[in-house]
Amino acid sequence: MPVRRSNAVVFVALVTLALLSVGCTRGGGANAKPADLANWEFPQTVEVFRRSALDGGPSAGEVIAEYEAVIAEAPVFVSVFVYPAPELLHVASDQETRATADDVLSLQHFADNKLAVEQSHASARLLSEGTTSTVQRGAVHPGRLATYRLTEPFLGPVTELDSTLHQFRDGPWVVKVRATYPASIAAEAGPAVTRFIDALAWPALQ
After folding, report:
1. Residue 130: which residues within 8 A CB-CB, separation 6 or more?
2. Would you call 135 helix, strand, or coil by DSSP?
3. Which of 62, 159, 170, 195 is in Cβ range 3.0-4.6 Å of 83 for a Cys bridge?
């Protein structure tokens, strides 16, 4: 009896075959110039969030900014990471093939980031996953979003938490945002995090 394959499985198989045929590999973001990280500004206040820490920079090749806020009488923590995106090496110059390969690499990198969440939080349970977007420099930038439910200590007692993973691509850079807050305030905290992401302005690409 023949095995039926879904369109998604067939698509992934075809794309993988195509990438192998053009010699596509993952690199370390050679097109991302560390000096450009100096153009990123992380204000002390963004919407209702206040910056609590800022690490990295051009010499480190990445930057991490920590923000926090009190929403509905509960703390909300947000971390922003900017670092070089995986890139293609030895790939054909055909624009369509390159764009498809970039999409596949972005999806794989998102899967890697999800796995990191799951490995660092034993209680992590995926609630939802899909697309998202942010408006930066007057244009819509698509991204991926995953929401997890965690059950673990949070400033003391064990608490049910919602933890979100947002991932965007900005030229040679990945912009990743992690947010964590009590599940009981998700209706208020979720939109506040979205407003934060839209309000944190990305610099012009150099």
Report:
1. 144, 145
2. strand
3. 62
Give the pTM. 0.83
Q: In what order do the strands lie in the sheet with 62-71?
A: 45-46, 49-57, 62-71, 74-84, 173-182, 158-170, 139-153, 125-136
**In the chain, what is the straight-line distance between the N-terminal and C-terminal CA atoms, in Å?**
56
* Distance from C-alpha of 18 to C-alpha of 202, rounded to nearest angstrom: 33
Would you state the pLDDT for residue 32?
A: 86
* Amino acid at residue number 11: F
Q: Which of 192, 139, 138, 134 is nearest to 166 (CA)?
A: 134
d(CA 125, CA 142): 24
User: Length of the chain, please?
Assistant: 206
DSSP state of 84: E
Which bin fits 203, alpha (ψ -120 to 50), beta or left (φ > 0)? beta
